[in-house]
Amino acid sequence: MTAKPITLGISCFYHDAAAALVSNGEVIACAQEERFTRRKYDPSFPMNSILYCLEEAEIQPSDLDTVVFYDHPALEFDRLINSYLAVAPRGLKSWLTSMPRWISQKLHIPSIIRESLGYDGPILFMPHHLAHAASAFYPSPYDEAAILTVDGVGEWATASYGVGKGSEVRILKEMHFPDSLGLLYSAFTYFCGFKVNSGEYKLMGLAPYGEPKYVGLIKEHIATIRDDGSVALNLEYFGFLDRLEMTSPRFEQIFGGPRRMPESHITRREMDLAASIQAFTEEALLKMARWVHSQTHQKYLCLAGGVALNCVANGRILREGPFEDLWIQPAASDAGGALGAALAVQFGHHGVKREASNGFDRQKGSYLGPAFSQNEIEAFLQVRGYPYRHLQENERAVTVAKALADGHIVGFFSGRMEYGPRALGSRSILGNPLREDTQRIMNLKIKYRESFRPFAPAVLAERVNDYFELDRSSPYMLLVAPVQKARCLPRSGGIPEDGDLLAVVSQKRSDIPAVTHYDYSARIQTVHKETNPLFYEVIKRFEELTGCAVVVNTSFNVRGEPIICTPEDAYRCFARTEIEYLYLEGFWLDKRDQPHVEEKKDWKKEFVLD
Ligand SMILES: [Fe+2]
Description:
Strand order of the largest sheet: 13-21-20-14-15-19-16-18-17
Bound molecules: fe (ii) ion
């Protein structure tokens, strides 16, 4: 064993490629490739992310002890070929479309790694769900805990559970393809006109507007839930085995016609379908959690896999499930596989000892990406000639807070970029939650996206229970909980027959209207002094000015664009949208002072809609 082994984890060639660097059990750096290439969910070999990780650790590829890939191509090949044989010759078209690319990438991973990095050390492959499980347990604050991973599919497994103790993670059981809760949710995502592997979040956001009236139909025809929470799919309703679609014509028959076309009007049917599959998913996950508890007798549960991003279900597992507490990996989907694989190699292969918990998690707030120094930023602003004001240290939080209190929208760029899909106050757009029009303005004039989706409240950690029915931290925006009843207002009307959600969104539902969803819930981020002192201070100052310890936090990007990474990305987004002020690591930019830049009218087409 090397004295202080350094491991690079890589996930790519499926969705949202990423790299992670772990040294002697400590997470040093993680980043998703999309942030560098500006292609959302970029699956390509994460060369930029790898170079960033090496730079952050100030090492060369030759300093790495191991490089590990987040899944096992041979096992995946086994699943792909067996799936094809099960439906042959029906799936020939899909096979011929996907196989050549798959072989050229996945089967050549070792040579791609060696040639790209000039690296000649060991290369390991980590079973996909073990990588998810490791990403869930090792960074958690627990010395021992149960682990549950649920996703679409990785090799054969679609869900797994196990136990983590000290430096060891053990998988006890797996659920196998094609039975998959993740694929089932994705099939409904597709049918409701959203993109698979990204639109699931929108479907979850749509669910509160609907009635779960199709749950009976789903259980009768499409999928059943066993006592242990595993699901059994009726493959006659799906298309992913033998064609290039998620659902089959039978799916259309029972749900009254063809799927909703992307970007078309959302009708009551989609709202009810969203509510139904969400209810089905919550029931399955709650059963899984109860089963895992009965098998492991652990107090705590760690979650990962794409389905663990379903923060509504996570909230229910916490409130109604048998565990005392949960920890959810913020990069829960495959991007987090890079970190999980690297951690599993450190503790499982290199024999690093995992230190006993001090009560905090080891994810460092997930602020694991690149930061930019004030010198770099000032040089950028001067070269471009952008007017700015340098803020003294004691002016920073109060300047941002005052702009928010006055009702302005602020782009906030501070510290290391977040790892995982949520912006947590390093690359965020902030707004005032007290104003009724904040949600509408942020959606339509800044994010350029559908109006029905709620924004997240970022709340001072110690004040969370004053606003929400939640008595613990939720630092990664992965728990949804009700807004405190005393803050809520009676509903002023239902959803109009024509399904116009814009009218509904602008109804005031609580005294923090911009972050209160239609069902009076909120997707909470607790902000902690220890992990993000400046963001914490901004909210503290905002509270002094307004009496409210909550700000609106949404990711710093427009629709279809990856979250910004560099000061240049930040300025571009600031200049193009109606963001009024930009806080750039100690510098303050007022939109009114900025030079007018003639933009191409169709700049939004740079990004593929997500
Ligand atoms: Fe996965």
